Amino acid sequence: MSKFIVDCTNIKSEEEFWDKYLSSVDTVEGDLFGRNLDALWDALHARGPGAPIEGTKLISVRNSGSLKSFRDGLFYDHLKPISYVLRSDPSSLLSFRVL
After folding, report:
1. I need a surface site. Which of 27, 68, 70, 99 has the fewest CB within 10 A?
2. How do the pLDDT tens digits run along the chain, 99 residues long?
3. DSSP run (H or E) holding 2
């Protein structure tokens, strides 16, 4: 079972967030990952490019407070539902937490 932590301490831009995601999570086809929230959904829900390696049970985004300033809060507001939907889907084997 694999677990990955994406520590957002000192993250100042969306670009830095995607860099941190890709450097913190062992991904499949990370070089093809679209570096946006739609691409993250595709990766986590449908195992698209940027998906965590097989067997990953948890990705934890920690110290996410800085993300609330991106796009006047819209980035964070769209990131949180990804976490909720994955937790609510009984067929999902992956937990994605935003703390």
Report:
1. 99
2. 799 999 999 999 999 999 999 999 999 999 999 999 999 999 999 999 999 999 999 999 999 999 999 999 999 999 999 999 998 999 899 999 999
3. strand 2-7
Query: Contact 27/52 with Cβ under 8 angstroms?
Result: yes
Tally of domains in the chain: 1
Domain span holding position 8 = 2-98
CATH number, domain with residue 83: 3.30.370.10
> Could you tell me which residues come within 8 angstroms of residue 30 by beta carbon, excluding any fewer than 6 positions away?
22, 49, 50
